[in-house]
Design a protein that fits this description.
Blueprint lengths: L7 H7 L6 E10 L10 E12 L3 E12 L5 E12 L6 H15 L1
Antiparallel strand pairs: 1-4, 2-3, 3-4
Organism: Symbiodinium necroappetens
Protein name: KIF15 protein
Length: about 110
């Protein structure tokens, strides 16, 4: 994902550390498939949901695959990825800072 300007503080605070990530549910739909080697495609994606459990944060992302020449939708995939909270030292402090920044924007 591209870096967001408002998240620069977080990238600096993490100092290259990342939490343990896992994949959850995955759904692939071939709309106008199959997908061929040698054909140019474009991918776009959007975050369609996010949330948390006591031990993990998660997000659902849908990715769309389109033929570059016609923009015809060929396939789409919805994927849940999770990050384990306990795997990142200082998670609670970073989360509190993030929540404070989000609240200030409201």
């Amino acid at each position: 994902y591209p870096l967001l300007s408002g998240d620069a503080w977080l990238h600096q605070a993490l100092g290259g550390r990342t939490p343990v990530g896992l994949f959850g549910g995955c759904e692939v739909i071939l709309v106008n498939g199959p997908i061929f080697v040698g054909v140019d495609y474009e991918c776009t994606r959007e975050i369609v949901g996010c949330g948390e459990t006591p031990r993990a944060e998660f997000r659902w992302t849908t990715t769309y695959l389109r033929e570059k020449s016609s923009q015809k939708l060929v396939a789409q995939m919805t994927l849940q990825d999770m990050q384990l909270k306990a795997s990142l030292e200082g998670y609670s402090q970073l989360r509190a800072q993030s929540d404070g920044l989000a609240q200030a924007k409201l």
